[in-house]
Amino acid sequence: TITAADSPSKRSLIVVSNRLPFVLKKAADGRMTRLASAGGLVTAVAPVVIKGKGLWVGWPGLHLPKDFNDANIPESDPSDQSPTAGLKSEQVVTVNCDPDLFEMYYNGCCNGTHWPLFHSMPGRTIFSADHWRAYVKVNKLFAEKTVDALERCSQNKGNNGVPIVWIHDYHLMLCANYIRELAEEKNIEFQLAFFLHIPFPPWDIFRLFPWSDEILQGMLGCDMVGFHIRDYCLNFVDCCQRNLGCRVDRKNLLVEHGGRSVRVRPLPIGIPFDRFVELATKAKKVIKTKHKVILGVDRLDYTKGLVNRLKAFEVFLERHPEHIGTVSFLQIAVPSRTDVLEYQQLKEEMDQLVGRINGRFSTAIWSPIRYIFGCVGQSELAAYYRDAAVALVTPLRDGMNLVAKEFVACQINEPPGVLIVSPFAGAGETMHEALLCNPYELDAAAEVINRALTMPVDERTLRMSRLRRREKEHDVDHWMRSFMKAMGSDVEEDDIGTTR
Length: 500
Ligand code: ADP
Ligand code: G6P
Description:
The chain is an alpha/beta fold. It is 41% helix and 17% strand.
């Protein structure tokens, strides 16, 4: 419980996530350097951790020697403009574990089981007792490191109020109870929160997982559990009732468990809207063709619906040959989880499909698809978003999808472009003025593409201005404030807002 005397800005925040906000890289001369990780979580949370002198517990992206001391983490480079630049090495707690164990936990359980299952793709899900055991062990390791961090916080006399431990995502769903046990032995006070960045599936999918009770008990170890949208909250509440027999209150989103009442909250994430506007304003032109560009930007992941998207574009070219030679589809796909077979197979399938469609429709001076397999910098990305006529954000399933929001923020040109979004992404639930497109329905998707390309200017302008207004208001700082409120704590304006 928090007393009125608690000064919110002085409450320490300990963030726990699988990845740290930067990865450590070994340079050729053996020196260790920091490379900022991008993404909503980092941009949202880093300023609060930095200002509040909080701590971040996570995996540094490489396997460090057993005797590695966190004091040897390098400070950020003076030229580093990323949101994590101000995070001091003393604010970082690395979790280091045996490479074989980590492989079974990360690629086995997190990427091979939780990721597909929580995206309602049981056909792609591997169930393995060995992977599960590794997941349990690694969650314990994260919990031990978190309790070390809590001890450090409680020794810091400048902090008053109860520290908040905020656990993120499907990698760490068991951490909470281990943290509780260890910290209570040491008489450390704290509050625990969890946020899931991916969907929470309906009960008939979730219960396929042989250890689903343990997952729920793990999440219920927190005082508050957050999801992007209300539907995921309701799925979670439903699973708690049906799997564990918990008493639940659907209206107020409460679950009774172990004598405690756990709050379940929809907390839709936002983006650093103003930062993207600034990037888009300053970015140099990268799209230099006269053709209208339909843009896709994603990690190369089977949940993103890339194969369906290419097939829908092919149907569009068949049904609307009037666009041939005037429109091209640019897909930028970042390599992701390349050690996992499913991702390797997807890469092959994409290469073949792009080749086939380009072979079928290209002329001597035009090809329908441009495909970049790689990561582009944020400023370049903002230029692509700004100058695209249409963004195709059509995942088969997605927790929220930040790309849809980033595109909207960068639409500063007059007249603006059009956003197409899948109803199976959290963004499809909240971005009401976008055109909806079911990625499984190829003919209809082709017609939505045509509608976007031929939409009258007035309609485009009205839709985009409403989308932009909402995203500006519900930006990442708003998300952070909503989280603090859900924890019963307000944040002083000055403690957030550094994302601009
Ligand atoms: P996910 O979290 O599943 O990857 P999101 O759309 O929510 O999906 O977030 C993806 C983030 O990664 C966005 O911030 C986006 O800008 C960034 N990103 C995605 N693809 C690329 C790319 N090809 N190059 C650079 N950044 C990318
Ligand atoms: C999604 C997950 C994140 C994850 C990211 C990149 O956004 O919600 O937790 O960090 O994908 O995946 P990776 O496996 O490279 O960390």
